[in-house]
Amino acid sequence: MSSFPPTTIISKITPRGEIAAVTALKWLREMMLIREFELRCMQAYQDKKIGGFCHVYIGQEAVAVGTLAAIEASDPVVTAYRDHGHALARGMDPRHCMAEMFGRIGGCAKGKGGSMHMFDRANNLFGGHGIVGAQIPLGIGLAFATKYEDEVINGGTSKRVTLAYLGDGALNQGSVHEAKNLAGLFNLPVIIICENNGYSMGTAISRGTTMGHDIASKALGYGFEGVVMNGMDVLETYTAMKELVDRVRATSRPAFVDMRCYRYKGHSMSDPRKYRTREEEERYEADDPIGRLKAHLEGRNALTEDDFKAMQRDVRTQVRESVEWAEQSPPAPVSDLYRDVYRERWGPYTGSSDPEMLGGSENQAGFAATDPKADLL
Amino acid sequence: MNPMPVQVTMPRLSDTMEAGTIVRWNVKEGDTVASGDVIADVETDKATMEMPVFDDGVISQIMVEAGKQVPVGTLIAIICIEGDDAASATAPIAAPIAAPIAAQVAHAVAVPPKSAPHIAVAPNAASAAPESPAVASQENRQRISPLARRIADELGISVAAMRGSGPGGRVVKQDVLAEAERIKSGASPRGDLVHVASAARSERGAVVAIGAGGSEVMLSGMRQAIARRLVESKSTIPHYQVSMRFNMDPLLELRTMLNVQLAPQGVKLSVNDFIVRACALSMAAHPFFNASWGGDRIIMHGDVNIGVAISLPQERGGGLVVAVLREAQRKGLREISAETKALAEKARVRGLSVEDMAGATFTISNLGMFGVDNFTAIINPPNSAILACGAAVEQPVVRNHQLVVGHEMQATLSLDHRVIDGAMASEYLQSVKHNIENPATLLV
Amino acid sequence: MTTATMREIEFRDAVREAMSEEMRRDKRVYLLGEEVAQYNGAYKVSKGMLDEFGPRRVIDTPISECGFAGMAIGSAMMGLRPIVEFMSWSFSLVAADPILNNAPKMLYMSGGQFGCPIVFRGNNGAGGQLGSTHSWAVEGLFSNVPGMKMVIPSNPYDAKGLLKTAIRDDDPVFFLESERLLSMKGEVPETEYLIPFGQARTARAGTDCTIVSFGRPVNLCLEAAESLEKEGISCEILDMRTIRPLDAGAIVRSVKRTGACVVVDQSWSFGSPGSEVAALVHRECFDDLDNYVHRVHTADVPAPYAYDLEQEYLPNARRICEAVRSCLYKA
User: Fold this and answer.
1) Of A115, A198, B399, B420, which residue has the fewest beta carbons closer than 10 angstroms?
2) What is the mean pLDDT of chain C?
3) ipTM higher than 0.90?
4) What residues are paired with A77 via a beta bridge?
5) How far off is chain A from C224, nearest CA to CA, in Å?
């Protein structure tokens, strides 16, 4: 039933560069952190500590870690709703990420966003976004803005590259097609990365997308290049991505990436995964990106089993502490309900403030009785 | 004028009463009742009480069946007050509640009608749709715009009987202003009293044809004030009366003696002065007679300010004023007498000031000088009671088991039943009787 | 300001002046939309702007509202201040997700991190026999969404002052113009001025009835008030200028004086600014009302093409007069 090519073929598509062991160890830890974080999210969700929707990233860790390692801190990033991995890989403290899941004031969005809306201005993460495909127009807008700032306002040359992620399920949204057209039309320095895990929720790519076996070629229709990458091997992902980022930065031309990967868990917490076989899952699980990198580092004598176990303990401790921290963060207060609706204060709205993560203080001062804007609706 | 529904709610019949049980209805739907009729017996937390009505009309609906307990304030019946229009007064009564609800009138009755169909009203239909005759004939609830209600309150105009020019007879701003204008240009030149005429008119009802040789007497401001206050009193206060006869012989003897002895000092005590003193002294033990109904509480007054009704000569426009003797509980007979005379003189010559008439906490009306045997008076709001005194009549009386000739006076208390119960009234009268029949107590 | 500095210009000129002045003042401001550059604007609002600001700041887009609206929002998150021209607000419906789901909610769902200083502007309301799909009045539909501001000027002076404020505003602003007003002439000062949001303008003072309106219908209200004056009815017309924020205080103060209120709103009645005003007045002025708040809206049907039908469909002076008379029990 699966029309999805096996990973062994994909690994031949992109070369694996020589990565310093210390860098690879760092990525290993990042991927392990994401996986542990997601496992604890699943647990917390089942304990009803997390509400609403929750989409975990287990299996796709190499994509976020490998692609984000290839860009600069000043490069903007925007993604979809399966966004915890990107937030952590981009540098968000897992405490704020977990607190957001828990709906606590210490969350990156003060508990107002939730699982699908991880934002981190300090790390240039412009959000996880919930409506499928909606983040791609935003992403090309980020690229438009960097180019406009660099060239029109500052009179220099375009320096920044934007990464805009989507899943393969978003490929057929009109907004994505419109955005691709505009990116090509306006020569925007953006890389649209399709995390192609083969399934749009429960619909295999071949059932919903024309040319599902070669979505990268569709970029040509919009006048820019499409690249296939292996998202199951972080070294390959990084190497291929770095080369593409450098090119896009230099040419200020957009690019599209068909990033082959696999999600080990369901689309969301309520997904029984009846649409695929256990054999298929096992095949990918046997080729786990974390296991791959571990084996690679062991092969280079850069990692022992004891090192790995120590790293695992370390990651577990960090995530446990994040959960504890999140639990101790107060629930988003009702007094905050009318904050952050508008920048301006008027009527019932109390202006906006930065979250704790950015050092924002909770200034709860209300209106003076004589506030001229108090009687506005 | 159409009949108007008046809501009868479960009364708060004791200070601690929160709910009451209808023990028995004495009336049924369609019965005609008059103010004061006991329409039901109500069991409170303390006792089984009689429940009088305060309006004349027809019981149009009984909402709570006998045996059922409901909280104070619950709508238990509706009385349809009869208007002038005989045809509409005899119209079916149970339905009218439905029409106002459908027409979204404020204060809609919360109880669904028994038989009337639910009438859905589309937005804007109130002004757009032609008034259905069926609905119109059942229309007997007052409709008034919030603004018109506010203006009427401010100008003191009674709107109870007005039928307005708005949809469904809604009283609107222009109706109230027109009414105010009519009153101003007609009966009363005094703007602050415009409400009186309207109250009086609403009491009288529609225009009465003047027969041959008849004429109209325009109301003075005072007449209007009297009309308004008394209508308000009689229609809102649950009056009842308790009478008692006093042996006046000791008092008359004492009075004769005192007046002889004090004549050189220009003092002439009236019987009424003794009665004032007697009533004032009895207040100490019976404070509810020096109290006012406060809606959800009873206001106890400290000083006893006794209002004395004084009739005015025709050259001062006739009528009746109530002069107030302040702190009567502290005053002796001589002081009471002097002050009363001064007030009466002032009333007849110059007229009393507002201060002279304000603040009474209890009132005495005495028609003894006109030879009246007995009568009942209407409570002077916000008092809780008024004492009506007849003449001290010489008559055969039984004293010490002997038939003898003596003087007796009948005094009748009118009481606000919300404040004072019958037993309390009897005790107070006995206290006054004791003071009158042992007049030395009035001297010291 | 003195009359010496006033001159008469068209509504479209006022809009263009506001954009050009703000683009000269702030390089972060740019204009994009269909036909705004080389074509000089489908309605000539942006005429000459390409020549002054060049193609990097006055940008022709393809017919791709969802894409370019979303792109502009992304750029606003980065701190640019885009002006997005919708040739008609009717076309904004295909951009509903970015303009309703992203722009107004970004600040909230990012916990105060990312605002969206953007202006969406274009023609709103029936243009004249354009048929159902092109005659949208989006006031009711869009003002329902918290996080956005909605501006709807009725004349050239307000259009300029309000648009300049909109461009400088840190929150997303929906700026509703009218094809039927673009050629309207009015006095506009040469000197710079801004009109703050949330301040209604008394378009006409009166004593008997408060008429609350916004946008093009304000002019119909003025027409109606002229004729009602001859009947001895004195109307006070409030031009709200902004629907969000809504100057509730001005409405309440006026209605407390007049005791009567008619709302004239060119959007459909169900769930509209008109119903919001009616609810406000009933809540705040209940004891001051001599009648329920009367409302004049477009008829609750899709916009018809036929001329006569469309005339009856839209709010007009006759219907406003009828509503005022009815509200005052003079019908």
Assistant:
1) B399
2) 96
3) yes
4) A125, A163
5) 27
Residue numbers in C near B147 (CB within 8 A): 259, 287-290
Length of chain B, in residues = 444
Q: Pseudo-torsion of CA B334, B340, B342, B346, nearest 10°? A: 180
Contact (Cβ atoms closer than 8 angstroms) between residue C197 and residue C169: yes
Q: Which of C33, C92, C84 is nearest to C62 (CA)?
A: C33
Are B228 and B197 within 8 A, CB to CB? no
> Any chain A CB within 8 A of the CB of C66?
yes
pTM of the predicted structure, to 2 decimals: 0.67
The per-residue pLDDT for range C222-265, each reduced to its tens digit, is 999 999 999 999 999 999 999 999 999 999 999 999 999 999 99
B417 catalytic, yes or no? yes
> Hey, are the CB atoms on A375 and C248 less than 8 Å from each other?
yes
Q: Both tokens of residue C31?
A: 């204009």
Low-confidence ranges of chain B (pLDDT < 50): 1, 84-139, 187-206
For residue A151, give the DSSP letter. Answer: I
Q: What are the residue ranges of helices labelled H in C217-315?
A: 217-230, 248-258, 273-284, 307-313
Alpha carbon of residue B355 to chain centroid? 22
What pLDDT does residue C72 have?
A: 98
Q: What is the pLDDT of residues A178-207, one digit of tens each?
A: 999 999 999 999 999 999 999 999 899 999
| Mean pLDDT across A331-335 | 88
Integer Cα distance of B300 and B288 in angstroms: 7
For residues B331 and B277, give the distance between their C-alpha atoms in angstroms, rounded to a whole number: 8
**pLDDT tens digits, one per residue of A309-323:** 999 999 999 999 999
Q: What CA–CA distance (Å, rounded) separates A230 from A9?
A: 9
What is the span of the domain harbouring residue A178? 7-328
**C56 contacts in A (CB within 8 Å)?**
148, 151-152
pLDDT band at A370 (very low <50, low <70, confident <90, very high): low
Q: Are B269 and B256 in contact (CB under 8 A)?
A: no
Q: What is the mean pLDDT of residues C11-31?
A: 98
What CATH number does the domain containing A165 carry? 3.40.50.970
Q: Are residues A214 and A359 in the same domain?
A: no
Take residue A301 and report the two structure tokens written for it. 């004598």
CA gap C173, C165 in Å, rounded: 10
Measure Cα distances from B369 to B24, B310, B366, B405 in Å: 45, 12, 7, 20
> Under CATH, what is the fold of the domain B4-113+124-136?
OB fold (Dihydrolipoamide Acetyltransferase, E2P) (2.40.50)
The yes-or-no reply on B/A contact (3 CB pairs or more, < 8 Å) is no
More confident residue, C287 or A8: C287
Q: Which helix (H) or strand (E) holds C82?
A: strand C81-88
- Comparing alpha-carbon positions, the chain B residue that sits nearest to C296 is B124
Overall CATH class of domain C3-189: alpha beta
3-state DSSP assignment of residue A314: helix
Name the maximum alpha-carbon separation found in chain C.
Answer: 59
Answer CATH for B238-443 from 3.30.559.10, 3.40.50.880, 3.90.180.10, 3.60.15.10:
3.30.559.10
State whether A159 and A218 are in the same domain: yes
Tens of pLDDT, residues B130-170:
444 444 444 456 789 999 988 888 888 888 778 888 888 88
Q: Which CATH architecture has domain C201-327?
A: 3-Layer(aba) Sandwich (3.40)
Does the beta carbon of A141 lie under 8 angstroms from any beta carbon of chain C?
Answer: yes
